[in-house]
């Protein structure tokens, strides 16, 4: 019996895998199960689409039915998985079950929101899906003052774009933006470029309460801010709800072939942990999906990650990162009127870089020590 490949999740990982596999095998059934409408859209664009005035509908590249028609697969939108029986190779969907030959968990991650008290704590916005973006747009349309929690990659991008139209305060527990990704000099230049953002570093939000038709945010230092909306961008936590019975740590533990601890079951994307790392970026997810497609088509293939560049989408001061840029680093800084290049050195070897402004670090990628 030619049981189907069942992919749970219609994000970048799930759809990239389905497309790549279909190029290798045109006949075996493939079923994608997704809790949302199954639309294909560029998730990395969410963090700055608001600044460009893009509607959620404009971000959609293909509907679920269009993806299904293009790839000759079945997409089951608005369908929640109730339980997986790994022994019987069954996916329970409530009123029906699916038998699988191979199962791929591409269920992504959920936003992490730090604990907060207050009668309006549940109004905090996150930005991790097209549905999130729809709510984000609606709530921010009439907002004048916006509080952004988190100064990492996504929080900085969101603050950058909202500040084009609104007054923005950014609160972060660290001492600067991009504190875990970039050297202090890059953070300083980026913060200077975002001069219209009110930064509150070394602080956190402890409570959010309704204050008339506005919100009152209380900070750990006792200060309060009155705003119209609160956006949280403090990271992601892999979804592990369907992984009961699998080895998990931060994410679903997989080997280089994306295999989980159960036979015929794989994990891919934001929910997967490879060599102790969860890599929630476009390039490693694409590489993983293409390798897994080869494996499922009969050619076992391990995924290999080389040095991967990351672009911070802050046009007022563009930042590029590559290789190792966190931890114990000796930074070599070269700056001119056009921008800045910071080389990350360990034991005399170039292990990473961060560039800002008009400098482009892509040429340094081949030079990074492996």
From TrEMBL:
Chief location category: cytoplasm
Record domain Rubredoxin binding: where: 302-359
Keywords linked to the UniProt accession: Cytoplasm, FAD, Flavoprotein, NAD, Oxidoreductase
Domain of life: Bacteria
Gene3D superfamilies associated with the record: 3.30.390.120, FAD/NAD(P)-binding domain
UniProt entry tagged with the keyword Zinc: no
Cofactor(s) demanded: FAD
Location(s), subcellular: Cytoplasm
Ranges for domain FAD/NAD(P)-binding: 5-277
Key word Transit peptide present: no
Stored PANTHER family: NITRITE REDUCTASE [NAD(P)H], PYRIDINE NUCLEOTIDE-DISULFIDE OXIDOREDUCTASE DOMAIN-CONTAINING
Family in the record: Belongs to the FAD-dependent oxidoreductase family.
This protein's name: Nitric oxide reductase FlRd-NAD(+) reductase
Organism: Jeongeupia chitinilytica
Encoding gene per record: norW
């Amino acid at each position: 019996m030619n049981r189907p490949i069942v992919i749970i999740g219609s994000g970048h990982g799930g759809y990239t895998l389905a497309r790549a596999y279909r190029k290798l095998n045109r006949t075996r059934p493939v079923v994608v199960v997704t809790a949302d409408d199954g639309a294909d859209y560029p998730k990395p664009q969410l963090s700055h689409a608001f600044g460009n005035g893009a509607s959620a509908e404009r971000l959609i590249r293909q509907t679920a039915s269009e993806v299904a028609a293009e790839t000759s697969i079945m997409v089951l939108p608005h369908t929640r998985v109730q339980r997986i029986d790994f022994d019987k190779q069954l996916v329970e969907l409530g009123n029906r079950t699916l038998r699988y030959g191979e199962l791929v968990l591409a269920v992504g991650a959920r936003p992490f929101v730090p604990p907060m008290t207050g009668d309006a704590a549940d109004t905090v916005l996150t930005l991790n899906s097209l549905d999130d973006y729809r709510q984000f747009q609606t709530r921010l349309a009439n907002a004048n003052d916006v509080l952004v929690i988190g100064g990492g990659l996504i929080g900085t991008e969101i603050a950058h774009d909202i500040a084009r139209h609104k007054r923005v305060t950014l609160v972060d527990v660290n001492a600067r933006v991009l504190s875990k990704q970039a050297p202090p000099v890059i953070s300083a230049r980026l913060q200077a470029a975002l001069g219209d953002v009110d930064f509150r570093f070394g602080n956190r939000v402890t409570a959010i309460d309704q204050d008339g038709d506005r919100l009152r945010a209380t900070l750990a230092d006792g200060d309060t801010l009155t705003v119209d909306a609160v956006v949280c961008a403090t990271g992601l936590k892999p979804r592990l709800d369907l992984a009961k019975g699998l080895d998990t740590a931060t994410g679903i533990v997989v080997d280089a072939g994306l295999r989980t601890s159960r036979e015929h079951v794989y994990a891919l994307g934001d929910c997967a942990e490879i060599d102790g790392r969860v890599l929630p970026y476009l390039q490693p997810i694409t590489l993983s999906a293409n390798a897994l497609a080869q494996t499922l088509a009969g050619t076992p293939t391990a995924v290999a990650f080389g040095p991967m560049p990351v672009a911070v989408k802050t046009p007022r001061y563009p930042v590029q990162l590559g290789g190792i840029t966190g931890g114990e680093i000796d930074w070599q800084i070269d700056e001119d009127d056009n921008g800045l290049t910071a080389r990350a050195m360990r034991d005399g070897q170039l292990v990473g870089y961060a560039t800002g402004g008009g400098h482009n670090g892509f040429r340094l990628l081949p030079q990074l020590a492996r």
